[in-house]
Design goal:
Layout: E1 2-6, H1 16-30, E2 34-40, E3 52-55, E4 57-58, E5 68-69, H2 74-83, E6 87-90, H3 96-107, E7 111-114, H4 130-145, E8 150-153, H5 156-164, E9 171-173, H6 190-195, E10 202-207, H7 216-229, E11 233-238, H8 244-253, E12 260-263, H9 268-277, E13 280-283, H10 292-299, E14 304-307, E15 322-325, H11 329-340, H12 343-359, H13 362-377, H14 390-405
Parallel strand pairs: 1-2, 1-6, 2-3, 6-7, 7-8, 8-9, 10-11, 10-13, 11-12, 13-14, 14-15
Antiparallel strand pairs: 4-5
Helix pairs in contact: 1-13, 4-14, 7-11, 10-12
């Protein structure tokens, strides 16, 4: 099978979408399938793989991890046609996702979209009315979904949300799996030895982008409350982002800066050892479609305390492999302290977490995805003109906004 993948974000940026693509592609190639990835170009970055094509783009458009591709590339069309894919799998419903949609529809081949992100939750980045932008994003994404032949939702919560928005295209829940071979017998002492953490200290770990939508101010407030009770707590946080300076200030104001370790980007091997070295993984994001870092933590056998939110509750089963807490700093810190005070509960949660990770292995998830691809190829794809009318939708919302104000 020949699979063309279009994405707005990819290496060198590290995030859930990049890890998802790399995980599935590794499994596809291992099974003898051919893949070609179309991704934005980034200054100074060169790929070793000949099956990655970079598209000229404005990187980190409007301070996000997305890149804005320049007008349609004849180079992409030529490479796409030469590759002659059986289907197109886009990772976003706009920018390069639209390019993939047009190319695929013109050839009459199936279009698959993985709905990685609740895009409307990022409307605060827009320089205009955030509520208007949010509604525009929802309408555009729904229109795009209904032009596809299959939608892949990383969680049941996202599937339910898309159905509620009147997405008519078939939706299958296929999370990004975990390459369990990376997590066999991880080094649980590396974190302590590398950063000079005492043996009697307990470590809270968080890994992810340092961005507003990750709700990290809340997490720091909750951790600070737990630290007031437990004086041997260390908070290790790995990730890059525009919020780092603000988070350092917050930690200083809470009086915990000396007990927080900020460590930027980590390679995959270091990430596994960081997960494995923690006593707990803490997570506060409200915008996840899956929360891949939660599954990675579980694969390392590290139990989780997370805010009860869509995408999270599909992975964290409260009281079984971790704790879910309300978005309340007192409630969240109480869950942290409860789990830290019970070695027996942590051991039980760890065992359940490992079992959960086994079920969601990258091999199993790739097999499910390939089965869905094969199912699509058994029937002709719709050849309708992929015209999404982004500006028509925006014009309608602007007119509605003006009417409400008048």
């Amino acid at each position: 099978m020949k699979i063309a993948i279009f994405t707005n974000t990819f290496r060198p940026f590290v995030g859930g979408v990049t890890r998802s693509i790399e995980t599935f592609v590794r499994e596809y190639i291992g099974r003898g399938h051919q893949v070609h990835i179309f991704a934005p170009s980034f200054e100074g970055h060169k790929d070793q793989e000949p099956w990655i094509t970079r598209v000229a783009a404005i990187p980190r458009f409007n301070q996000t991890d997305f890149s804005l591709p320049l007008p349609f590339s004849f180079k992409v069309r030529s490479i796409f046609e030469k590759f002659n894919p059986d289907l197109v799998h886009v990772q976003h419903p706009f920018f390069l996702g639209e390019m993939g949609m047009h190319l695929g529809k013109n050839r009459g081949i199936p279009i698959v979209l993985t709905y990685h992100t609740q895009y409307e939750m990022y409307s605060h980045y827009a320089p205009i009315d955030a509520d208007l932008v949010k509604r525009w994003i929802i309408n555009v994404c729904t229109s795009f979904c209904n032009l596809c032949d299959l939608i892949v939702a990383p969680s049941d919560d996202i599937r339910t949300m898309l159905i509620s928005r009147e997405v008519k295209t078939r939706i299958e829940v296929i999370p990004t799996g975990i390459d369990l071979s990376l997590y066999r017998n991880p080094d649980r002492q590396w974190l302590r030895e590398t950063f000079g953490i005492k043996e009697d200290d307990m470590i809270l770990v968080h890994i992810g982008r340092l961005a507003k939508e990750k709700n990290l101010e809340f997490l720091f407030k909750s951790v600070a409350k737990a630290m007031r009770i437990r004086k041997n707590l260390i908070f290790f946080i790995a990730g890059l982002g525009d919020l780092e300076t603000d988070l350092r200030k917050a930690a200083d104001q809470f009086g915990i800066l000396h007990r927080v370790i900020f460590h930027g980007k980590m390679n995959p091997e270091e990430l596994v050892k960081a997960y494995a070295g923690g006593d707990l993984f803490v997570f506060s994001s409200l915008t996840e479609t899956q929360g891949l870092v939660l599954l990675e933590s579980m694969a390392a056998g590290t139990p989780v305390v997370a805010v009860d939110a869509p995408g999270v509750r599909d992975i964290v089963e409260d009281g079984v492999n971790g704790f879910l807490a309300a978005e309340d700093s007192d409630a969240f810190s109480e869950k942290i302290l409860l789990l830290l005070s019970s070695p027996e509960k942590r051991a039980a949660f760890s065992k359940a977490a490992l079992k959960n990770a086994e079920e969601l292995s990258s091999s199993n998830m790739a097999e499910r995805m390939l089965n869905e691809y094969a199912r699509l190829l058994q029937k002709p794809s719709s050849a309708l003109n992929p015209e999404i009318h982004h500006f028509k939708i925006l014009k309608g919302l602007l007119q509605e906004s003006v009417r409400k104000k008048s």
